[in-house]
Specification:
This protein is α+β, with helices and mostly antiparallel strands. The protein is built from 3 helices and 2 strands. It has one domain: Endonuclease, Chain A (3-Layer(aba) Sandwich).
Amino acid sequence: MFTRKHVAVFVDGCFWHGCPIHATYPKSNTGYWLPKLARNIERDRETDAELKDRGWRVVRVWEHMPPADAADMIEEALTKASGHSR
C-alpha cells in the first residue's frame, strides 16, 4: 500500500483468486472448495469497492504477470494519484 497516495496493490494468486487464465478447481471435496474459492473472489470485489468508496485506487495484478508489467500498472496508478498524466 502506498498510503500517502491512497493506492492499494494486491498480488492475487491464480488458484486462490480465480485467474481467468490459470485457475484450476479441486476435483475432490468440491462442496468445501468451490464455495471457499467463490467467496475469495466475492471478498476481493467487496474490498475493491470499499477502498474505492474511501478514495483509494486499487491495483490488482496476477501472480503470473511479468514484474515489469506489474510495476508499470502500479506506476500508472501512482502517477494518476498525483494528478499528473503519464
